[in-house]
Amino acid sequence: MRAVTGNTFPVRKQLKAMGGHWNPRTKLWSVPNERFQEAQDLVNDASGSGRSDPCDDFYPVSHDPGDDDYPIDGVGFAEPGGRSALRAATRRNPRNLPCPHCGQSNRLTPIDRARGYQCNECADRAERGFD
Ligand SMILES: [Zn+2]
Fold it and tell me: Are residues 46 and 74 in the same domain?
């Protein structure tokens, strides 16, 4: 006989059907050695399903703020279909921040800044390879 560990309560009837015995002193079910793996899997499955919401395994990747296709705050790109990755300026997302690279004022919106962007001019210069 071998003792099964974990939360055996939900599967106690199956354990008994496998030839298991409840030991009130150790508060453990013991099952015949040849049924042990089967019994332990049963317990693991039963306690696993009650432990966490299965949805916890699926992160909503489309809500990741790093996803460029996902409009932030209802704000699309400044140049839809264009080369610029900068976001369009809106009342809630004004273009009032300086470029961290060249220091020109009113180049970036707070969303652009949060994403670590630089202004279009600097981005172009970096892409062309001389800076
Ligand atoms: Zn710049």
Answer: no
* Rounded-to-integer distance, Cα 4 and Cα 43, Å: 8
For residues 34 and 71, state if they share a domain. Answer: no
pLDDT 10s digits, 57-95: 444 444 444 445 555 555 666 666 666 778 788 888 899
Residues that place a CB less than 5 A from ion ligand 1? 99, 101-102, 118-119, 122
- Residue 48 — left, alpha, or beta (φ > 0 → left; ψ -120 to 50 → alpha)? alpha
The rounded Å distance from CA 105 to ligand 1 centre is 9
How far is the C-alpha of 71 from the C-alpha of 29, rounded, in Å? 55
pTM of the model: 0.37
Other Cβ atoms less than 10 A from the Cβ of 9: the count is: 11
